[in-house]
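Handout, section B. The chain below has 107 residues.
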Amino acid sequence: MSTTNTAPVQDTSALDHEFRMTHTFHLQLGASEPVASQLESTLKSANARVDKWLILRRGGCYEHSITVGGIGEASARTLRKALASLNSGIKVHVEHMLHFDRAAAPR
């Protein structure tokens, strides 16, 4: 006899108004890799709103930390693949972050 345990489905629609999701993309690329304009074009085509963009130069390498909002987890994964496909030398890591929005929380 086989039994399956299933987790109860939770309604998260009430939480949608109290939290907002952002995604931070960490990219590491060499000096000869695509420039910021190519990255920006890819972000625009994904309809990602750039909240913060930090570029650090370390030796012959550039490290981009791009925080975007306005997209969900699935779109963020698709965007990660699109950024990585610009050149085989680009390394991309994405962080999915959930932020509590105090202004939208019920009082």
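Note. The helical segments are 36-45, 73-84. Compare this with the example in section A.
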